[in-house]
Write a structure and sequence with these properties.
Length: 302
């Protein structure tokens, strides 16, 4: 068996599925507060692997510009890109969801993205139309490039139940929107929604038999927030904004704190390894796996 120290996940899970979730701009201190995420801390945390918890290794934003689109592009490429703003445009190289589709010869419907923020489409695929992408906006929302998270979650969970994709990405953004507006009450209410929706996701998977049993869920954020009165921002000059968190649960995940610190750049090789693929960016030194051979795949453990 191969092992990936970051998430303590078996490198190749037979017929692996992954649901990857991001909650935009959720502070580490809010993640740690049981009152903010009561369902997670009461019912799910004991079975989860945690990075950035109260103890153990932390997790950091890789792209120190502390902006959303650069952060998302670094996650999906597995390296810091030249994207320097939320208007930088489409990612310029193959992302790991595109690679999953290509190397595993999956139908387009098996790799799906549901995002409230329309610009997420610029992070997940470098060739438009490669993946199944459903990304905002909605005309009845105050921001013209996003839609309500509740609608995004409803669409994603329906797709999960009906299509059972091998990889599904769910990107939510209202927490960051409310924080930028300085509305602490609504920001905290949004976290309770996220907590409720995470529980609903786990319950949906539990109802899907073998598919759900073979599905790993990974949840993190793109950036934290500045300290103190600057909490409405996330700026490159505030190290507080770079301190983030991650949770993972599902097959092969060992509950508790991770052994090693991590950044966004560990996410791509982790997910690739779950699918039995040798990481595209293995130079970060966190992969403990045998030689992959000519086909570029890690043998599935029996």
């Amino acid at each position: 068996m191969c092992a990936l120290p970051l998430l303590l996940i078996a490198v190749a899970v037979p017929q692996a599925n992954v649901v990857f979730v991001t909650w935009d701009g959720v502070r580490r201190e809010d993640f740690l507060e049981a009152d903010r995420l009561p369902r997670f801390w009461k019912t799910l945390s004991a079975g989860s692997l945690i990075l950035g918890g109260r103890s153990g290794p932390g997790m950091e934003v890789a792209d120190r510009r502390m902006l959303s689109l650069p952060a998302y592009q670094s996650i999906f490429v597995g390296a810091v890109t030249d994207c320097s703003s939320n208007g930088c445009g489409r990612v310029r190289e193959e992302t790991f969801p595109e690679r999953l589709l290509r190397e595993l010869a999956l139908p387009r419907s098996s790799v799906a993205v549901f995002a409230s923020w329309s610009h997420l489409a610029d992070a997940v695929e470098h060739v438009t139309g490669t993946l199944t992408v459903d990304a905002g906006p909605h005309g009845f929302w105050p921001w013209n490039d996003t839609r309500r998270d509740a609608e995004t979650v409803e669409r994603a969970l329906r797709y999960l139940r009906e299509q059972r994709p091998r990889f599904l990405y769910l990107a939510l953004g209202e927490a960051d929107d409310q924080a930028h507006s300085g509305d602490l009450e609504r920001y905290r209410a949004t976290l309770l929604d996220y907590d409720r929706w995470l529980e609903a996701l786990v319950r949906s998977l539990a109802s899907l038999g073998e598919y759900g049993e073979l599905t790993t869920v990974i949840v993190t954020t793109d950036h934290g927030r500045d300290a103190g009165a600057g909490w409405t921002r996330h700026s490159s000059g505030d190290a507080h904004a770079g301190s983030i968190w991650l949770i993972a649960l599902g097959p092969g995940v060992k509950p508790g704190n991770a052994m090693l610190p991590a950044t966004h750049l560990h996410l791509r090789p982790t997910i690739e390894a779950l699918f039995g693929l040798c990481p595209a960016h293995a130079t970060i030194g966190e992969i403990a796996a045998p030689a992959c051979g000519d086909r570029g795949a890690v043998p599935v453990s029996q």
